[in-house]
Design a protein that fits this description.
about 130 residues, mainly alpha, two-stranded antiparallel sheet, about 10% strand, extended
Length: about 130
Amino acid sequence: MLAEGPTEGAERSRHICQLCARLLGVTGAGISLVTAAGNRGVVCATDEVSARIEDLQFTLGERLGLPTPALVAFLAGAMCVIGALTAGLVSTYGNATDWQAVQVVRIEWLLGAISAFAAGCLLKPRR
């Protein structure tokens, strides 16, 4: 598959990006690079949405002062908190007999959030 495409340049990068998206079964993919000197940039993306996501990753990371792994952990933690809050709201309007099961789910979501926030703190570079 890889050998069938272009052998160099921007077309090679686009071909690799498209192959990744197709093999992973996703709707889009992007390739970003960060040099040892800290220079960052998007090499290519399969579509406009993927390009925006790649760019957003750098923009948010720079504004928050977080590298990509820490940013991902932070966002995962935020989603866990939202999941826990949503489970609580849904259980309020649901059946009272499911209340204990919902509380277990909320605790799992909150533990996930704590783990993700801790990972984000550990992945953030020290200054």
